[in-house]
Amino acid sequence: MKTNDLIALLASDTLQPQPPVRQQLLQKLVLGAAVCGVLLLALFGLNPRMDEMATHPAFATKMLWLAALMGFSLYGLFRLARPGMGAGHTLWGMGLALMAMFSLGLVQLLQTDAGTRTAHWMGGSWQVCSVSIAALALPILGAMFWALRQLAPTRPVLTGAVAGMLAGSLSASIYSLHCPETSLTFFAVWYVGGMALATGLGALLGGRWLRW
Questions:
Q1: How many CB atoms lie within 10 A of CB 3?
Q2: SS3 39
Q3: Residues 6 or more apart in contact with residue 157 via CB below 8 angstroms
């Protein structure tokens, strides 16, 4: 769609009123999260030690970190879904959140004995962690693209990437209900790896599916 065509459409009397941008995005986000949760239960199941895990400092730190990433990426989508809007402070916020976890993971790694460092960053589930997070992000990413295609983003690649980060961080928080790991170094490597896959996929698809 050309810019002049969009202006003409917005000015026409036949245009039906649409729900606010935030409402459209949040509705689809809830739908995607619900599908992601069902997939987690069906494919992985809940961690049987979840009661114990929920009180672990590393779990609380991880969830706060993921909440920050979700908050910044959702804020960015609220802006980018509107024509001509930039991402604001989204990229700075996400970058700082990622650097914070990298720093915590590095400090933890340096404080451990040399003989146990490999176990800290590889854990017991490194083979499946990143792939699982990226796979669980797919229904969330699909729901976000469903909403975004009804809106008017003018930066499709960036919008897709931010949608991918939102999908990846939300799926990582849901995957945490199964994950047995408690190492911050593990989160800094493999959780970030899964979110990076979702972000890259979002950018790739955004360049194709969100163009006018």
A1: 11
A2: helix
A3: 203, 206, 207
The tokens for 95 are: 């970058």
End-to-end CA distance of the chain: 4
Integer Cα distance of 58 and 103 in angstroms? 14
CB neighbour class for 88 (10 Å; exposed up to 12, middle 13-18, buried from 19): middle
Place of tokens 């980018």: 80
Query: pLDDT tens across 37-90, in order?
Result: 999 999 999 999 999 998 999 999 999 999 999 999 999 999 999 988 888 899
Q: How far apart are CA 201 and CA 64, in angstroms?
A: 24
Q: How far apart are CA 205 and CA 160, in angstroms?
A: 7
Lookup: tokens for 5: 């065509």
pTM of the model: 0.89
User: Do residues 108 and 123 make contact, with C-beta atoms less than 8 angstroms apart?
Assistant: no
Q: What is the DSSP letter of 188?
A: I
Contact of 90 with 75, CB cutoff 8 Å: yes
Residue type for position 32: G
Q: What are phi and psi of 128, to 5 degrees?
A: -115, -15
* Token representation of residue 13: 């009397």
> Are 83 and 153 in contact, with CB atoms under 8 Å apart?
yes
Measure the CA–CA gap between 64 and 152, rounded to whole angstroms.
31
Rg (CA), the chain: 19
